[in-house]
User: What shape does this take?
Amino acid sequence: MNKLITNIGLAISTLGASNSCIHPEARPNILWIVADDLGPDLGCFGNKNVATPYIDRLASEGIIFTHTYTVTPVCSPSRSALITGMNPVSVNCHQHRTRNRNLLPDGILPITEYFRQAGYYVCNGDGTRDNKPGKTDYNFEFSGSLYDGADWSDRKDGQPFFAQLQIHFPHRPFKADPEHPVNRSSVRVPPVYPDHPLVREDWSEYLESVQYVDKYVGKIIDRLRKENLLNNTIIFFFGDQGRPMVRAKQFLYDSGIHTPLIIRFPDEKRAGTAINELVSVIDIPATSLVLAQIPLPEKIQGKNIFSDNKREYVFSSRDRMDETVDRIRAVRSVRFKYIRNYYPTRPYTQSNTYKKTMYPVLTLMKVLYKKGELSPEQAAFMGPNRPEEELYDLEADPDEIHNLVGNPNYSSILKKLSLALNKWVAENDRGTYPEDTTETGYWVRDADSAYRQKMNSYHLPENISDEDFLNWWEKRLNIRKK
Assistant: This one.
């Protein structure tokens, strides 16, 4: 692969602002396989409770990146970042779903435009060849056409493609896998959750949904092989954010922003190796352009993963998600994480219809919190407020339980990371705060309507108590009480 990267670097250095001298047929296909809400919960990443043979094989033929983090912990701003190579806070795409979407700033284009200009066919689908389009959860308007179609089969003869294949799993609702049921008793329950049968069931169903991701990956690789495309296609496999769990998705702990990344080259160079350096998901579009021998746009914020310019930090942000107004920023080094909460007087668990109606463990923790039956570490997330700052030693405390702010032994680390975040916010954060009340008000009303519809589909009263809702979840998930 070093020879491949060197050749690409030499090609780019000779192109200047133009890439017309390279024939499209000489370029590799670039394929992104993107899963919804996928944490690093795969066999090849060390999870022995999940069966992911196809992804594990992909990893054995490619390169694993163990420290890959998303720039935000929810889909629409994350996907906006992936398609632009920009932090969503830098291009006004940071709120999770907006009605009045803006055009991208001057000089910023979706990377599909650069691929198209270089002669690529750009498509976005689900890989089933039924021309079903893939997810396009973007928070911006674009005057042109983002994609040429939904499947690479519609391209011209000899034309290279840049394709995205979107896999809905393991997004909730989860799907049981009767072929490979997960052993509930062997699942590791992170200490931020109570070790309760409901938690084990929910976690196991998540892992079984991950196994459906694996099945889809197997079908995609099989198709590439049958169409003789494996020998000229560079494959990227990753998720749009972390796990769909309490204290994960929508938050900046590693459980919400850590996703697997595997890159497979046609010649399988460095196959089966792992790279432990920090990677941001905005580096994926930048690297894809480089590997396609397309010069990087001047304003792109992502880096070429294979360059010598390595990251000291990765940064992540969280803003309004649906009806829930929040603002959190985080910076992570290989070892430490610093989180800044801009609304410390608000609980972590502000009202959110999606979480309330889809996360049984949230209801469980509400009930146990009221009973005083959570551990101090678990109860901290359910309290009425939160600290302004959080600092974690991820080497000693990977579950991010012990906040080191106030510990004099870490004061220099706290200061260093705080200053790094200050600099990043000043240079990159272009968001408007507070958001216009007409926008936030709309999403509150939308959430109220969604809540009524969901509870009606459950055949439950809208004013159901947490205790009764928990009983309903336990019956639905066949949880036997002791």
Summary: The longest strand covers residues 273-280. The mean pLDDT is 93.
